[in-house]
Amino acid sequence: MNSRRLRWAFFGLGLSMAQFWACSSGTSPATTMSSSSGSGGSSASSSTRVASSSTGQSPVATGAGGGSSSANIGLQCMTDSDCGSPLSCIKATDTNPILGGGPANGYCSMTCMADGDCPGGNTSCYKAGATSGPGICVLQCTLGPQLQHINDAYSTDMKCNERDDVACGPIDSEGTLDGCLPVCGEDMQCPSGRKCDPRIGVCVDNPNTGDPTGAKCDPMATSPTCAGTCLSLLGADGGAGPSLCSEECIMGGDNPYTSTPSCGGLTNGICLYSPGGNGAGDFGFCANACSKQDDCQLPDFWCLAIGGLTGAKGGVPNGFCFPANPCPNGASDCSMITGTACTATAYGPQCLPSNFPLGSATPDGGTGGTGGSGTGGSGAGGTGGAATSSSSSSSSSASSTSSSSTASSSSSSSSGSGTGGGATDAGADSGDGG
């Protein structure tokens, strides 16, 4: 099946946590999503989660509670009685023809032909891209407000019943109507014998297979290679940037954040990429975990720590792959990125932490020395001073212009400008910082 390129532009976050900061501050590259299908999978709708809705009704944010059936749409369930008539439970053990599998922890819904068939004024008939035939009733929602920190709680606005297995996202082909759709993050959310499909976000017997999150991919390939989705990044100049395999996830997290199941848990990945304006409970995309630079798609992505999360304080032993800031002017370029040093690499000087070995990125087969110290950290071994070699010609990370935690979206033909986030710290901690 051909890749399907969606018409949205995405930005990486400035990667902050409440009270904690990541080692990259600055504007991350924009991305567009190409939803692809590889081998395996059990879904007839494995290439898209876009829906067809029969009205132009404005979306409304809703929460859990209430005794009416409309208030119960989207709730967790194990049996029909958990939902109340006329609703029924789409169980995690089901293979629902619209979802392609069973939603983790169940989803209260009912069959529909049009929006008017769904109870309440805050529901829509979701058909997974079809223009005819039956669909299922889903709860409407509104994207935003913009995420302020990576670990903003799902309970910020009661969106999608505060579930960590349901995300707010577009449910029509125009991207004008949003609804709450199942998005599992790890196999343990599924019943015994089933796994979380990385492409369609539901529990299935035979998940889609292919390259994992972080692998290089071609979004225009006729035979996609990703187990999940191929994200295309826009460069700082708005031109084509690198692409990577990823999977859909839910922005924000549980309390405590370390229990968040998105991306397979924090030792496997983290939900970092998102359209500008998306907030807690909205859909995003995963960045892969790493313990060394060679775990990342060099030179476009580097293994970086998130302060208060990576290391002893947060209890997460690994970093995560996302764009680093180049430092052609030496240590001064890294002065606002706490826990990093201007480090000489085979791809030019980069603001990097010392936690993760350079490996193949070591310059000239040396020991990977630093090019001067940045605030709050130092690199490993080698010669000091500002490195002067040129930065990677293929790197798409933009220079640091702000310490924002989110960025505004743009069309897929332009890069857009980062907007300020709500965090007040101006730097980025090292792995054990905070």
Walk me through this protein's architecture.
The protein has 434 residues and is mainly β. It is built from one helix and 26 strands. Strands 1, 2, 5, 17, 18, 19, 20, 21, 22 and 23 form a ten-stranded antiparallel sheet that branches. The model is unreliable at 1-67 and 367-434 (pLDDT under 50).
Quaternary assembly: single chain
The biggest sheet amounts to: 10 strands, antiparallel
Number of helices: 1
**Estimated helix fraction:** under 10%
Report the β-strand fraction as a percent range.
Answer: 15-25%
Rg from Cα: 21 Å
Principal-axes geometry comes out as: elongated
Order of helices and strands: EEEEEEHEEEEEEEEEEEEEEEEEEEE
Low-confidence stretches: 1-67, 367-434
Total DSSP E strands: 26
Defining traits:
10-stranded antiparallel β-sheet, 22% strand, elongated, 434 residues, disordered C terminus, 1% helix, disordered N terminus, mainly beta, 1 helix, 3-stranded antiparallel β-sheet
Helix and strand topology:
Blueprint: E1 4-5, E2 10-12, E3 16-17, E4 20-21, E5 30-35, E6 39-40, H1 69-72, E7 88-90, E8 107-109, E9 111-112, E10 123-126, E11 135-139, E12 166-170, E13 178-182, E14 195-196, E15 203-204, E16 208-209, E17 229-234, E18 240-246, E19 248-250, E20 269-274, E21 283-290, E22 302-304, E23 319-322, E24 341-343, E25 350-352, E26 370-373
Antiparallel strand pairs: 1-5, 2-5, 2-20, 3-4, 5-17, 6-16, 7-8, 9-11, 10-11, 12-13, 14-15, 17-18, 19-21, 20-21, 21-23, 22-23, 24-25, 24-26
